[in-house]
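Worked example 3 (structure in, sequence out).
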């Protein structure tokens, strides 16, 4: 492993192989379940859904990226190693998109090919992103930068802003953003505040370079 990764990696935990396999299977099944739920909500009229789900617009929330990025971050940093993070996140997204588009094709009766290709592409690169993400829980400056980068991405998925306006996409995205801060928090409140501040800076830089939103 490259030296710079050895310097920033957190302690890898020793867990029996059976437990590793069981955890990965559970994560994949979780992805399959969420894919089915997401497509079911997508195919169900709002007036047929429970009031709170329709009011919070959960259907469209699952169709945006924030929740999936957040879940991938959680799976990554709570995996026992960077390699396991790659495997777990890849299988989570594989299960999710497989169940979502199988439901779409065989139950809903249509297959949105162009939209599917976006998610397939994201799934293909997800192991690399998860591998990098796992190192964000270290105690070095590089780990802090990685965490701040993820906060910046979530910030841009939560808030819509420009020179004269600033707005929140939805309360659910705000909860995801707060959850991201909680999961990625540093060892001290001061370090956590530094992560948030740096993350906001990254968010503005990203927005200047790519002035559009990943909904």
């Amino acid at each position: 492993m490259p030296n710079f990764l050895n310097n920033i990696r957190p302690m890898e935990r020793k867990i029996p192989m059976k437990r590793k396999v069981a955890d990965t299977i559970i994560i994949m099944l979780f992805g399959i379940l969420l894919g089915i739920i997401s497509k079911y909500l997508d195919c169900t009229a709002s007036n047929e859904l429970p009031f709170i789900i329709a009011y919070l617009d959960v259907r469209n929330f699952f169709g945006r990226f924030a929740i999936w990025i957040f879940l991938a971050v959680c799976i990554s940093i709570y995996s026992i190693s960077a390699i396991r993070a790659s495997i777990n996140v890849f299988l989570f997204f594989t299960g999710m998109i497989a169940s979502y588009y199988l439901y779409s094709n065989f139950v809903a009766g249509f297959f949105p090919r162009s939209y599917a290709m976006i998610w397939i592409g994201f799934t293909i690169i997800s192991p690399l992103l998860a591998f990098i993400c796992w190192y964000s829980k270290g105690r070095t400056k590089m780990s802090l930068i990685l965490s701040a980068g993820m906060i910046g991405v979530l910030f841009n998925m939560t808030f819509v802003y420009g020179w004269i306006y600033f707005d929140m996409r939805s309360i659910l995205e705000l909860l995801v953003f707060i959850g991201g801060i909680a999961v990625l928090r540093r060892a001290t409140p001061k370090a956590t505040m530094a992560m948030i501040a740096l993350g906001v800076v990254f968010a503005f830089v990203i927005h200047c370079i790519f002035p559009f939103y990943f909904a």
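Notes: Residues 82 and 131 are 5 Å apart (CA to CA). The chain has one domain: 3-209.
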